[in-house]
Amino acid sequence: MLRRPKILAALAAVALPAALVGVSLGGPPAEASQPAAASADGMSAFSAAAAKYGVPEPVLLAVSYAESRWDDHGGTPSTTGGYGPMHLTALGASEVADLSGKQKVATAESLQTLKKASELTGLDQSALRTDTTANINGGAAVLASYQKALGLPVGANTSAADWYGAIASYAEAGDKAGAAGFADDVYSIMAKGAARTTNTGRQIVMPALAVKPDKAQLSKLSLPAGVQPSKSDVECPPSLGCEWLPAPYSEFGTTGDYGNHDLANRPKTGKIDYIVIHDTEGTWQGVLNLVQDPTYVSWQYTMRSSDGHVWQHVKANDVAWHAGNWYVNMHSIGIEHEGFAPQGATWFTESMYRNSAKLVRYLAAKNNIPLDRAHIIGHDQVPGTVPSTVAGMHWDPGPYWDWEHYMDLLGAPIWGKSVLPVKAGSVVTIKPGFEGNVQVVSNCDAPATPCTPQATNFVYLRQSPDDNAPLVKDVGLHPNGSDGTTDVSDMGSRAAAGSQYVVAERQGDWVAVWYLGAKGWFKSPKSAPDAFAKPGLVVKPKAGKLSVPVYGRAYPEQSAYPAGIPYQTVTPLQYTIAAGQAYPVGDLNIETDYYRAVTFDGQPPTDHVQVQGKDRYYQIWFGHRMAYVRAADVDVRPAI
What we know:
Blueprint (H helix, E strand, L loop, with lengths): L39 H14 L3 H12 L13 E2 L4 E2 L3 H6 L14 H9 L3 H6 L1 H18 L14 H7 L5 H17 L1 E4 L5 E4 L36 E2 L5 E3 L4 E3 L1 E2 L11 E6 L4 H8 L9 E3 L6 E3 L6 E2 L5 H5 L1 E6 L12 H18 L8 E3 L24 H7 L17 E4 L27 E3 L33 E3 L3 E8 L2 E6 L2 E6 L7 E4 L2 E5 L5 E5 L20 E7 L4 E5 L5 E4 L12 E4 L4 E5 L4 E5 L3 E5 L2
Parallel strand pairs: 5-11, 9-13, 9-14, 10-13
Antiparallel strand pairs: 1-2, 3-4, 6-7, 8-12, 10-11, 15-18, 15-21, 16-17, 18-19, 19-20, 22-25, 22-30, 23-24, 25-28, 26-27, 28-29
Helix pairs in contact: 1-6, 2-8, 4-6, 6-7, 7-8, 11-12
């Protein structure tokens, strides 16, 4: 039985509840700066606390890095009530549940390490919340107490390998799987080493130290075993302990409707090219309820903010309804991360970043997906399908998702050096840094109100090389021709970390790139650049063409459709590429296809089948979002 056309269902432009606007539903880690040496202020607190409470300094540093990357978050708590670089927790599980369901902590005991630290050190809880040195002392005392409780030796000179059980305890996980996952992360950080400047300007270096931890200590923890993933249930690295919570594939109503995803046989019915990073714009329990509703949309995975716990809902070979663009749905896996894009770092925890990166590395390897920003994309990079859907496309995970750190965790750092001069014709990669890149953003909490300053992942593009010039126009978002805005949801004037552009012009410290068919200017002084050049391929309109169209999907030509399958019109977006302009290639090898899936029973040869075309397309970097161009319209050339 036929269901309603997908463009009217949840696949193209979904009308969502207000609480879910964002859902369409090695060497040291690379950082914005690698200090040559640690400052005394940065390292002395860790050294002193390690000596005072008998914790090996590498253990203390690695635990803090896993919890917060040594940041103190300005004395404000995380979503689970954790404070400071040691993430000392102050809320009980019942209290957290009372906070409008903001987080439900997966543990039988209250999260009260702040109180425990106060009792162990004699320091006031207020100081432990707000004073970095006090917080580090508190964390060291708690770690030492866990070591003692396990009957294990304490001392700054003890082997870091003998602290596995205490580190696992520090995770405050609800089961051994979660505790072991945290401990394994800590030892991985220890083995790689780390160096960065914290949000308070402290320079900290942790030299690499590879040790073989005593994992047998995990048996000493009084915790249940936790989820033991089955190959028949979840597609996930075993270390993540993912759970299978299936999205329903079922009929409902009397009109042939069904939900909430489509059965397929990928890659045979369309290869998987993208992993789409979303945030939920809702708390995890509400989101888990929604994905089990057959009348709602779907996605493959959900990740919890507090500990990075993962649920899988849809198999990778099936097509979930998450991107708002059926072509991208056909070729992608969607991962929802608990959080609210306007709040950013409050929800995007280190545990979630790390577990998300583990999952993405696993999925990318399994599906041959390149680990780059043309294929590991935000929902905000997904293009509109036709002109009328462009303005309604979603913008999660938003300006506060740390793409630079995330790509570091994936083992695919964003390019941050120039092997070629940044000049007209160069392909440049945007890398503005994150911690020190605090851009003006508005309307996070109320209209016409500046957002609370925090690190951002982008640079603004202006209409001329002037700090006071208006932001570039996006005719898709602002059809009336008005200038771009600083609204948190207005992505139309932003160049995000990892995105690529072709330089149109350079004037001193200012660089202009081709962006949405026009020049967009940003400041990138040679002494502190935000853009870095390297070789690459670009597309240009073929000789004799004054302009060429761009598309939001790569659908087949009309002659490719067999009888019984309606032609899906190939409609250009409202943007064009003019002669003389150039845009970087994201992928030359995408499929020109359409996966026909409009009935529940899905009977071939007219349903649950892939229509393949011969008219080739290329994926390009175009504005903030990606786009597609017909190969017949453009030439592919090496950048200058």
